[in-house]
Every structure is written in structure tokens, then in C-alpha cells.
Design goal:
heterotrimer; A: mainly alpha; Histone, subunit A; two-stranded antiparallel ribbon; 3 strands; flat; C: alpha+beta; three-stranded antiparallel sheet; 14 strands; about 20% strand; binds magnesium ion; binds zinc ion; GatB (chain C); GatB_Yqey_C_2 (chain C)
Chain lengths: ~100, ~475, ~475
């Protein structure tokens, strides 16, 4: 785990910005790197704990089997939904050219 | 509240007049629904005149946090990226309060997407603390807290992911409640961190907060994480007192707090003790890990929840030649710095190679904290501590230093990680004459006891 | 059985996505309907609107378990994760899918040829919206812009992942065909590959010899017919072998199958691989099906193809020819065996029922299954009774399938298909005999091979209106 908690660097910030579809100026990269590093430094108390044998909690509730019947309910009004869209054609949401197929 | 005794139109006008006189200075709202509220008030008065039951909160004005979807009304989360968005549906809590006859007067300012502790991260400018307009109202539900504190509305709704109801309630001197996770539906609450978010009430009194929580609580089939439990009976037990209740004065919710804060909370303990509660000093060291775990888990969930703001289906788009560039330009222009910081932090915590060390580890710490609370609640019924380490800080004080801003949530965060309820009730003022909030915490679904104890503190606050 | 060069072995694993035939989507009550007006089956949930939350469809869980049981999988407690990636057809920019604990764990599928392919998992997930590319050639590459319809967004899918057990292109096709057949038989899916309700991705690698470690694999995306599965796997294995034979190395990548060109092409290299940042979906809770629920679904599971194949062949007894066995397999694979069994039970000659179904009905695509069985049997009855010639019967069948059913008598009449009367047949035969004296002489001397020659001439001259049996009888009569 030591390698995985090495200090965050500017390349890491560039990488996550790209994954998150954010564009950062050089000045922002420097600033965000410093700020995120200070949060991660603080998180070192958590990262360094030996928690072998402790189960992770993803959710505070212990619910299961929350299901709904397979019955059709009313859909939204198409015009109302499309009115909120930035660009529409042919009753569909219009987007600029897509580069690359879906993963 | 005067439901039924005074006309709804009169209550609406009173609220609007107070907004007119205060809003310029406080900026609690991002949108005021002047015509809608008067129309609804008239409908309620007409109904009452015809002898109809117009709901348990008929005619009571309420301010709605801007991250709760309201059909056809602007819901922007105080973000440029959602500026002007009108949802085609109502949040479940909105349907419920409307059924109860509440008058929604407008949407309140907040930290963008509920990320912040001061309401300075709003794309539409900060909200000021009504007790001192050089101070922050707290956040992220700062507008909702300020609206009640400035008597613009008797009630408001906020959301609490790491303290976003309790901390501003404390800073503004009002009652704020974070219910048990799953007690109030999240359907229509714009998600920040789904496993932590919970909607809750602000009010000027414990009784009013109880009345509002009774209206919004209860099972919702549209939210898979909604508890299949009936809404708790709160109002009818407010005067039941704390005789025989064991209250843990929690060391971790006091250490690191300012001396005036510690003194106030110790006085609160005395008030409970005088009312017949047994005060037990208790230490839960695991709570100290809460802040770190929270700032990994909440950003991780947020990074995923906020991916959908991509300029395709709703909200604001910044055009570019291809879809990836359009997504990027839209998000870069649409999100503020704090949102970007948390998205990047969360993306990093989930990314290949770091998941186990950060997100996975934080989830395990969550287990430790839940276990520690469970153990504590085997010897005490409730916990008492400070809601915030200090009273409200000055606007601009912490904006450049995210870590110090995050520290202001240190007392409220552990409850969210456990999914437990907690509330903040005003209890005197600090050396700076700014309000202090006493925080009461309890195990899942202990709202009734929390409100009983809060009621005792409310009455004893000025004794 | 492999057509690979000597000494080479291929290793194939298939990932099959199948849409479930539920009334509603996986996480909302919008209708799950193919082909509706764009963006009419949408709501806050399947559009990923801020504040919306998913609630799991019980029907989808039941169908997923049916599939699992049909594939002998371990049905187990499961939960959902988020798979994060940006794409405009993905409204939340993450897909809700099952990750480390799928609803169906390991199982297997037995092919008609006796081989067994392991199933690693069969998990639930949501489908994406549908993107139409505008400008250029209408394909994604070179288009100017795209339009998105979210009707399909959130439609329930089960993704079935096979083990790396497939060793030839034919076996890959056989696996996909048998799986499709099982999906349809289970009632969980309609298996319509043309409409994209069943989509196949193939992971292909090659190695020298059968004991060597697996080579670098390439994934071929979106194969939308059984024929494409076989062709693409064959092409891809040969492509990889050619590179290795030349001393090159295979780079791990995702490839696209171009049906027209008959080639796979690079879509994305491993360097561009996504970091999906999977994490537990906080808006959903685990699914823990009770043992009683699982056993109830199992008890209600209809007969599976393997059993139906045995039952069908039993109608032919020991007399079944190899060709008929192949026809029987093909019919079951396409879920057309109920047509044959139904016809035989109504007294149709078994050989005719089998041949018409496996040869003609099977060739009419996914729509064949929707033909009302009674209409089909009525048609075979007419043919069996000599009221229609084989050629006429096939034409009527095509019309019936295209129309989704109908009265075969009416269709035959509307096409002017009346049996040639005996006089007209005699006249035609006279002309043909006169025009082909040599062949007629040889036929009269006993060369039976010429029966087909004369029958063919009569059919051509009458445009198929003559009945083959009547022609045979007339020929024999004239010879004697
Ligand atoms: Mg998949
Ligand atoms: Zn929907």
C-alpha cells in the first residue's frame, strides 16, 4: 500500500481531470495539486490503518430485496423534457460529433 | 405556527415583506416564487372557507433548498451548470409538504451542489449570517438556515451530507435536524453523496421542526434506500422530558472546540442533568477518523453523481467540435472550484491502483465508526457535544484553505457515516455574541428521544 | 474441425448481452418497447435527471434467475456497482451493473455436438440509449453530429460471460446459437439479433498447440448475427496467426467487425482502455433471492432445447436420416420445433413437417417464430393433401410470415395457385416430350435419373403450379 499512497503529483491531477472531463490551466493544476495533497495527507491516518478483517461498509442501511412490480407507469412529457435540453433535433437530443465508439 | 388561525394570504404576505426588507442584505434566496406562493395561499384560504382540510401545515411559509426538485420551478443547486433548469417532476418531500399545505416561497442559496460549509461556494454569491452580516451562515444549507434566522420563513428544508443542516443551524441560531438515513426520501434531492445525504428541517423552535419532520418522514417506494418504517411520533412526546435518560457527554465532540463552546455544552449537560438525565462522560476515539473517511467517501460518490452534468440532456452547454470537447468545456465552465476539487479527489480515490488504499480503506473506517457508536449506545441513550468547533467565522476566512474549511464539519460528519440521526439546538451565544449550537446524537430511529432532549435544552437555554 | 493452419489453436470466450422481455425497464416503470417514437418511454430515472433514483424491477430479477437456472448457474445473493464512463447514450454517465457479486455465478452450457462450454457469470445491467449518426455515411466515423433517443436507456440486460472454452469458429457459432435458443426457451428474451436484443462480443486469442499459455486477446464488438460470430472469429484467429507467423506480436485491443468487408478493424487500443472506477451503487440495496423463490422459478422453467431435440427426434424413430437429424437440430436451435411437433400431432407427414420447417420456415428470419402455429399447420395440410405444390406452398409460407399470419387458402387463391388440372398437365407433357425425344427414349428404357429432368421442365413450364407427385405419376403412366 506504501506505493499507492505516495504523494499526489501534478500528473495525477492532470490524469484525474481528464477522466472527469475537466480542463485545468497550468496555474490551477499547481493549486489543485497542493490542495488535494493536503486532503490526502490528512487521509493518511485512514490509509495507514491496519484494517485487515474489518468488512467495508458501503451503505449505512442493512436493507435487501427492495423491488418494484414489473408494471408500466406514466412516462414524462417528451416536449417538457426536450425543452430543457441544450440542443434538440427530430425529437432527439443533439450532440456534436462523437469520436470513438462506446466502451 | 398559526395554521388555520391566520389566513394563508396574510402569512404569505408577512413572509414576502420580511424577505423584501432582509433579502438585500442576507441573500438567502436564489429564486423567490412571489406569484406562485400568493396563488397557493389564496387556494388554501378558499379551501378553508369551504370547510376543507387543507393540511396539517396549511398556509405555513417554507423556504426550499435549491437542490430539491420542484416541478417547473428553477432548481439549480446554486451552480452555473444547472442555471435555469426546471425539473419535470417533484421531489417526494416537495409533494409531501405541498399536500400538507405548506407555502413554498422560494429556493434558498447553498454551496454549489451542497459542497461547502459556508455558502460561499454558491455561483450566485454568498449568503450572510443574519446575526452578523460579516460572518458566514454556515453551509451548505446556509440560505435555508438564514431564511429562518431572519424570520423570512418559519420553516425551511435543507440537506445534510456531513453537517450541512446542523452546522448552519448552529451558526444561525436555529434548530436543524439530520434524520436517520432512510427516514426521509431522497427522491428528487439532487445527489451529492448518496450514502450520506439526508433531507431535514430547519425551524425556529423544536416543536416546529418536529411538525415538519413528521410531514416529510416515512417510506417512499421511489427511494430504494427508504426505510420501511412509519414516520415517528414527535410532537406528542415533546414534553416527555429526559428523566432517566442516559446522555453521554462525548469527549471527541468537545476537544478541539473553542473554550466558550466547551463551556456552553457543559452548561447544556447541566440543564439535562437538572431535568433528570444521567450524564456520563464518554470517549469514542474512532470518531476522529471520521473527517478523513468522509473526505474520501463523499467525493468518490460525488465524482460519479456529478458525471451526468455533461451538456447533453439539460442544463447549460458550452459548444465544442466534438462530444468529448463539449463535455469538457461544459463542465470546466459550469462547475466552481470546490466542486472540481471534490470531483477530482473522488475520481482519484476510485481510480485504478488507489481504490483499496483510499475508498476501500475509508469504507472500513466507516465500519469502525459504526461499531464504535453501537458500543457507545449500549451504555448511553444519546450523545451530547458541540455542533461546531467555533461560532460562525468571517466571510472569506477559509475560502483559500479547503482543509481548514473541512475541519469545521469535524463534529457533524461521524453521524452521517453511521446513518444516525442528530440535531442542533441553539444554546446560548459565544464570547462574540454569535449563536452556539448544542448537538444531540442518537442511534438509528431515536428521533423521538432526540426531540425530547432538544426540547429540554430549548427551555433551559436561557435559564 | 478447426480450419486453422496446422499446429495452431484458438481460444475464444463470448460475452452475450441479451435484453429481457419485461414490461418495464430495469429501474423505472417506463415501457420496455422496441421501435416506439423516440424519447416517448422516458422519465427522470432513465434520463438520469438530477435527483432521480433507481428501483429494481422484480420481473427482471426473475428473468435473470430463469436464465441462470437454464445455464446451470449458481444463483446467489448479489449487488450492483456503478461502472463510470462518459458517453452520450449513457444518461448518468455511469452504467448500473453487477460487478463482484453477480446474480448468477458459474454454470455451463452443453452444445448439440456434445461439447461443454463453461459459463463464468450471467449478471444484470442496464442498456444504453440509441444514437443515430447524422452526416457522412451515417456511421459514427465521419458523421457531423449525433442524435440520442433514450427509449432503450435502462432496458434490462443480462450479460452472459462464457469461459475461454471455445476452440473453433464453428463452436463459437454453435454456442451462440444454443444460447440464443435457451434464452428464447426460457421466456426471458426474444433473442432477436437483427433488432439488437441479443448482441455478441467475442474475445479471441491464438496459441501454438493446445497446451501453450493463451496469447494476447482481442475483443470483437457487437456481432449481430450467428453468421457474423462464426466469420468474425475465423477471420480474427487467422489475422492473429498471420501476424505471429510473420514474427509480429498481437496488441491487446478492441476491434470492430465489418460484415460487408468481412474484416475486423481496430476500434480502440489497450492504451485507451477505460478506468471504470467501479464502486458499490449507493442508491440500491442487495438482492437476496430466497431458496423458495429460486425453486419456484426452476419448477416453472419450460423444457430446454436439449430435451426438445430428443423429443423431436423421437417422432422419427430409428429411421431418421443424418440429414433429418441436422434438420431437427436446426429447427430446435431456432425454436421452431413446436411447429413440427404441432404439425405431426395434427397428422401431417413427419418428413414434410420437418423439411418445410427446417428448410423454409427457418430461412425466414426472426419473424418466423411469430407466425401463428395453426396457420402454418393449415398450410402444410394443403400441401400434404396435394392441394398445393411444394413450390406454391413455399410462396404462400413466405407471404404468411411477412404478414404475421393469415388463412393459407385465401393467400393461395389470391396468388392464383390452383392445381393444374389433369388436361393441362397432359398437354404440357406432350409438348415437353416432343421437344426432348432423346431424353424421353432413355427414360422409357428405364433411366430413372431422368425423372427429375422432366419434372423440372414441367415445373418451369407451369411456373411451379404443377404438383410434383402428379407429374411423377403421369410420367410413370406414360412409360408403362
Ligand atoms: Mg456489460
Ligand atoms: Zn424511465
Amino acid at each position: 500500500m506504501s506505493d499507492n499512497t505516495r504523494p499526489l503529483n501534478e500528473d495525477d491531477v492532470r490524469h484525474v481531470a481528464k477522466l472527469a472531463r475537466l480542463q485545468l490551466k497550468d496555474e490551477e493544476i499547481i493549486r489543485f495539486t497542493e490542495q488535494l495533497r493536503s486532503v490526502l495527507d490528512h487521509a493518511a491516518d485512514v490509509a495507514s490503518l491496519d484494517l485487515e478483517g474489518i468488512a467495508p461498509t458501503a451503505h449505512p442501511l442493512e436493507l435487501s430485496n427492495v423491488l418494484r412490480a414489473d408494471e408500466v407507469t406514466a412516462s414524462s412529457d417528451r416536449d417538457e423534457v426536450l425543452r430543457a435540453a441544450p440542443s434538440v433535433a427530430d425529437h432527439r437530443f443533439r450532440v456534436p460529433r462523437i469520436v470513438g465508439e462506446a466502451p | 405556527m398559526n395554521a388555520g388561525e391566520v389566513s394563508a394570504v396574510a402569512l404569505a404576505n408577512e413572509s414576502l415583506q420580511q424577505i423584501d426588507s432582509q433579502e438585500g442584505e442576507i441573500h438567502a434566496f436564489v429564486e423567490i416564487q412571489r406569484e406562485q406562493v400568493l396563488r397557493k395561499a389564496q387556494a388554501i384560504d378558499d379551501g378553508v372557507a369551504q370547510g376543507k382540510n387543507m393540511g396539517v401545515l396549511a398556509g405555513v411559509p417554507l423556504a426550499l433548498k435549491d437542490n430539491l426538485c420542484q416541478h417547473g420551478e428553477v432548481t439549480s443547486c446554486a451552480s452555473n451548470i444547472l442555471s435555469g433548469w426546471r425539473p419535470p417532476y417533484d421531489a417526494t418531500v416537495v409533494s409531501r409538504i405541498e399536500t400538507a399545505g405548506v407555502l413554498i416561497v422560494g429556493k434558498t442559496n447553498m454551496d454549489e451542489f451542497a459542497m461547502g460549509s459556508s455558502t460561499e461556494n454558491s455561483a450566485f454569491g454568498p449568503t450572510k449570517n443574519p446575526h452578523d452580516t460579516t460572518k458566514v451562515p454556515g453551509g451548505s444549507s446556509g440560505g435555508s438556515a438564514a431564511a429562518v434566522a431572519a424570520s423570512m420563513t418559519p420553516l425551511s428544508l435543507g440537506s445534510d451530507t456531513g453537517g450541512s443542516i446542523r452546522q448552519p443551524a448552529a451558526f444561525c441560531g436555529v434548530v436543524g435536524v439530520k434524520p436517520t438515513y432512510g427516514l426521509v426520501s431522497r427522491y428528487g434531492l439532487v445527489a451529492f453523496a448518496s450514502s450520506l445525504d439526508q433531507v431535514g428541517p430547519f425551524a425556529g423552535s423544536v416543536a416546529d421542526a418536529a411538525a415538519l419532520l413528521e410531514v416529510i418522514a416515512g417510506h417512499d417506494p421511489k427511494d430504494s434506500t427508504s426505510l420501511n418504517a412509519p414516520a415517528p411520533a414527535l410532537s406528542s412526546h415533546l414534553d416527555d422530558g429526559v428523566k432517566g435518560m442516559r446522555v453521554g457527554l462525548c469527549n471527541e465532540l468537545l476537544e478541539g472546540c473553542a473554550p466558550d463552546m466547551v463551556a456552553a455544552i457543559k452548561r447544556a449537560a447541566e440543564v439535562l442533568s437538572n431535568a433528570g438525565a444521567e450524564i456520563i462522560e464518554i470517549s469514542i476515539p474512532e470518531l476522529k477518523l471520521g473527517l478523513s473517511a468522509y473526505y474520501l467517501i463523499a467525493p468518490a460518490e460525488a465524482s460519479s453523481n456529478l458525471a451526468r452534468y455533461d451538456g447533453v440532456r439539460y442544463g447549460v452547454r458550452v459548444d465544442a467540435e466534438d462530444v468529448t470537447a463539449m463535455n469538457t468545456a461544459t463542465r470546466t465552465a459550469g462547475f466552481g472550484d470546490e466542486v472540481k476539487r471534490r470531483i477530482m479527489l473522488g475520481t482519484y480515490a476510485l481510480s485504478a491502483g488507489y481504490y483499496d488504499a483510499y475508498y476501500g480503506q475509508a469504507q472500513r473506517v466507516r465500519t469502525l465508526i459504526i461499531n464504535a457508536f453501537t458500543k457507545a449506545y449500549s451504555s448511553v441513550d444519546l450523545l451530547l457535544g458541540a455542533t461546531t468547533p467555533t461560532t460562525a467565522f468571517a466571510i472569506g476566512d477559509k475560502v483559500g484553505d479547503p482543509m481548514s474549511m473541512y475541519q469545521s464539519d469535524i463534529c457533524t460528519i461521524p453521524t452521517n457515516l453511521a446513518g444516525h440521526p442528530a440535531l442542533s439546538v441553539p444554546f446560548g451565544v459565544g464570547d462574540d455574541k454569535m449563536p452556539i449550537g448544542a448537538q444531540l446524537l442518537g442511534p438509528a430511529l431515536s428521533e423521538q428521544q432526540l426531540f425530547q432532549a432538544a426540547s429540554v435544552l430549548e427551555h433551559g437555554a436561557n435559564s | 474441425m478447426s480450419s486453422l493452419p496446422e499446429g495452431w489453436d484458438m481460444v475464444v470466450g463470448l460475452e452475450v448481452h441479451t435484453e429481457l422481455k419485461t414490461a418495464t425497464k430495469l429501474f423505472c416503470g417506463c415501457a420496455n418497447n422496441f421501435g416506439d417514437e423516440p424519447n416517448t418511454n422516458i422519465c427522470p430515472v432513465c434520463l438520469g435527471l438530477p435527483g432521480s433514483l433507481p428501483v429494481l424491477n422484480e420481473g427482471a430479477v426473475e428473468f435473470a434467475i430463469r436464465i441462470g437456472l437454464a445455464l446451470h448457474c449458481v444463483v446467489q445473493p448479489s449487488s450492483f456497482h456503478r461502472k463510470n464512463y462518459f458517453y452520450p447514450d449513457q444518461p448518468k454517465d455511469y452504467q448500473i451493473s453487477q460487478y463482484d457479486v453477480p446474480i448468477n455465478g458459474p454454470g455451463y452450457l452443453d452444445l448439440p455436438d456434445g461439447s461443454r462450454v463453461g459459463i463464468e457469470r450471467a449478471h444484470l445491467e442496464e442498456d444504453t440509449g440509441k444514437t443515430t449518426h447524422v452526416g457522412g455515411t451515417g456511421r459514427i466515423h465521419g458523421s457531423d453530429e449525433s442524435l440520442v433517443d433514450y427509449n432503450r436507456s435502462g432496458v434490462p440486460l443480462v450479460e452472459i460471460v462464457s469461459g475461454p472454452d471455445i476452440r473453433s469458429a464453428e463452436q463459437a457459432r454453435g454456442y451462440a446459437a444454443e444460447l440464443r435458443s435457451i434464452l428464447i426457451a426460457s421466456g426471458a428474451s426474444d433473442g432477436r439479433m437483427e433488432e439488437g436484443s441479443m448482441r455478441v462480443d467475442a474475445n479471441v486469442s491464438v496459441r501454438r498447440g493446445t497446451e501453450a499459455p493463451f496469447g494476447t486477446r482481442c475483443e470483437i464488438k457487437n456481432l449481430n448475427s450467428l453468421r457474423s460470430v462464426q466469420r468474425a472469429v475465423e477471420y480474427e484467429a487467422l489475422r492473429q496467426i498471420a501476424i505471429l507467423d510473420d514474427g509480429g506480436t498481437i496488441s491487446q485491443e478492441t476491434r470492430h467487425w465489418d460484415e460487408d468487408a468481412g474484416k475486423t478493424q481496430t476500434m480502440r487500443s489497450k492504451e485507451e482502455a477505460y478506468d471504470y472506477r467501479y464502486f458499490p451503487e449507493p442508491d440500491l440495496v442487495p438482492v437476496v433471492p430466497s431458496e423458495a423463490f429460486i425453486r419456484q422459478i426452476e419448477a416453472e422453467l419450460p423444457p430446454m432445447p436439449a430435451q426438445r431435440r430428443r423429443e423431436l427426434i423421437a417422432h422419427f424413430g430409428d429411421a431418421a436420416t443424418d440429414a433429418q437429424l441436422d434438420q431437427a437440430n436446426a429447427a430446435v436451435e431456432l425454436n421452431l420445433d413446436p411447429f413440427i411437433v404441432g404439425a405431426i400431432e395434427k397428422g401431417i407427414t413427419p418428413a414434410l413437417a420437418l423439411a418445410r420447417t427446417a428448410n423454409e420456415l427457418a430461412g425466414l428470419g426472426d419473424d418466423a417464430m411469430s407466425l401463428p402455429k395453426d396457420d402454418y399447420i393449415a398450410l402444410l395440410k394443403m400441401e400434404d393433401a396435394g392441394e398445393l405444390s411444394a413450390t406454391q406452398s413455399k410462396k404462400v409460407l413466405a407471404d404468411l410470415v411477412a404478414a404475421g399470419g393469415g388463412d393459407p387458402k385465401a393467400v393461395a387463391e389470391s396468388k392464383g395457385f390452383e392445381q393444374l388440372d389433369a388436361g393441362a398437365l397432359d398437354a404440357t407433357l406432350d409438348e415437353i416430350i416432343a421437344a426432348n425425344p432423346d431424353e424421353w427414349a432413355r427414360y422409357r428404357e428405364g433411366d430413372d435419373k431422368l425423372t427429375g429432368f422432366f419434372t423440372g421442365k414441367v415445373m418451369a413450364a407451369t411456373q411451379g403450379q404443377a404438383d410434383g407427385k402428379a407429374v411423377n405419376a403421369a410420367l410413370r403412366q406414360r412409360r408403362s
